[in-house]
Sequence to fold (316 residues):
Amino acid sequence: MIRVLSIDGGGIRGIIPAIVLAELERATGRPVAETFDLVAGTSTGGILALALTMRGDDGRPRWSAEQMLALYEEEGPNIFDRSVWDVITSAGGLIDEKYPPAGMERAFAKYMGEARLSEALTEVLVTAYEIEQRMTFFFKSAKARADERDDFLIREAAQATSAAPTYFEPVQIERGGSRPDLALVDGGVFANNPAMCAYAEALKDEGDDRITLLSLGTGELTRSLAYDDAKDWGLAEWAKPIIDVVFDGVSDATDHHLEQILGPQRYFRFQTRLDRARDDMDDASEGNLHLLKQEAEELLRDERDRFQQLVEALGP
Fold:
């Protein structure tokens, strides 16, 4: 059996899957990197995938899911922070990215240092999109081990997968040699829920009947877009909502397809409606972080039977 973990994008809402994974680590008595054979992620999910499979000095995972909660609680307000000057020069995010990259760069340097993809403790797949060559791009630990030119710094992959258009500027990564440099944005533009990408990767080595897949969402969007408002929107008004619509729609479609393909015995999806917490990817206020944690804890209570089925399906 090959055990696959997939984590959606969603910015600060990544605190929800982090809490679910912390509970899973307690229930299984094992870190994520020892429970799963492949861990995939997009955006905030990519950050978790990279950090939770990162090798520490003792050869074990450098970070637990519980420890990763600090990334959201302590670093989130710094990542999603902008000065008055940033607001003015970007016209509120209309003519430039909403946030400067400095906060993200500092956080990833702190948590990931100089670690590289090839050092991951289990297979990793993280999504991004290359805007100059107009193609999907995947950071893979298997590719990193096979070719040192694909052995990127983990923090580079983390920044690239989370460079959501309008929020952050694209990330440029030098490749060296004759290959062109990369210009990357958030993989959520094509796979905010990367579970289908992970499933396809797992199929390369195992038959369909041997795959068990856990997919973690970052909260279902609940704020409606009123027709009377949207029907008169132009480019400026749609700029931010369209990102949310694309990301959310892609996630739901992937969930539907995998539920049909794998069935309830081998496919587990944990997702919650954001009835109290705000669904903005960048609301890192203390109050919203508290509400997001509440949403995650309520999800675990409501799905405790299904969660126990998952623990049993993952095996010893």
Q: What stands out?
A: Residues 15 and 72 are 6 Å apart (CA to CA). The chain has 14 helices and eight strands. The chain has a mean pLDDT of 89. The two ends are 12 Å apart (CA to CA).
